[in-house]
Amino acid sequence: MILKWLAVSLLWLCCAGTAAGFELQPLTTRNLSPATLGFGLPALGAARLLPGRTGRAQFTFDLVSNFSESVAAGERLRFDGETYRAALSADYGIGSNFEVGAELPLLSHSGGFLDGFVEGWHDTFGLPQGGRDLTASDQLDYSYAHGGDGFSLQSEQAGIGDLSLRAAWQCWQDVSKSRALALRVSLKLPTGSVSHLTGSGSTDLALWLSGEQRLQAGTGVVTLYGGGGGLFSTDGDLLPEQRRNLAGLVSFGVGWRPWMRLGLQLQFDGHSALFKGSQLRELNEFAGQLASGGSFVLTDATIMELAVVEDVLVNTAPDVVFHLALKRNF
Question: Domain tally for the chain?
């Protein structure tokens, strides 16, 4: 199913359309750890909204490799497997200062095929394996037990994830358009499955600011961007007794556009703990990941975004994520 979604989305996005000006925007990355991917953690989003009566369609694909094992008094956690997340989204500008949109993901969990590659990558760059090389390769085990509570997924599953509706307001932009600030909001609805780990069963509301500053340098345009806010949610059905109903969000990054058709980026995404009552850092510590990549003009109508994401705060996010997004304005 996920391969059909990928093929149809690529064909649709690469069809002829209105040529879009190339401006660096925040990478559309977020924490996709098994315990957090069903919650309404938003990607930062651009500080500049779409002009009125224009839109943007986007296809996003994330290949996520997880490996983490932790044991504490009365707790046992194992995240070993791969997740594939494909999402279609669309946004539309209303007037000069408003934007609305929606995103629907499709998720698939499996044992995957990347263990050998990731182990080799870690060996090459002297990175710790964290026990990955001591276990059987390409197996699926997303499980957590805490007394009589927890969850377990050990067989391949796929399905629709949680639908997100979103809106934004351009609250400030200077005359030169070198600086901008947008207020963004998203509402995530429980359309996925908790038992298949494609949803959390909760309704989540996120509210945050996204800002940017552009600087003209001799080697190109440098963009500094960032933002933060809060995530408010119901208990849901995934570890409801341990759920924190309020979490803080933060993202910041830098982009450099040395040529008109190419931009390079480095971006940090973080959030406070989504769960309580646990001694494990996977659930009850500030989470942080670092994405390195960028964007380039694929055709006059399509921009491609590529990034590799790693858990700079170890075990609070996936071990590694390979991220791709295709964007088309209309």
Answer: 1
CATH number of the domain enclosing 228: 2.40.160.40
The pLDDT tens digits of the residues spanning 59-102 come to 999 999 999 999 999 999 999 999 999 999 999 999 889 999 99
Strand partners, 22: none
Q: Note the pLDDT tens digit of each residue in 143-200.
A: 999 988 899 999 999 999 999 999 999 999 997 879 999 999 999 999 999 999 999 9
For 206, list phi and psi in degrees, rounded to 5: -115, 140
Cβ–Cβ under 8 Å, residues 171 and 183: yes
Domain assignment of residue 305, given as a range: 2-329
Q: In the block, which residue shows the tokens 């979490």? A: 247
The span from the CA of 303 to the CA of 13, in Å, is 10
Give the rounded distance of the alpha carbon of 45 from its chain centre.
11
- Residue ranges of E strands in 73-193: 75-94, 98-110, 141-146, 149-153, 157-160, 164-173, 179-188
Which DSSP letter does residue 134 get? G
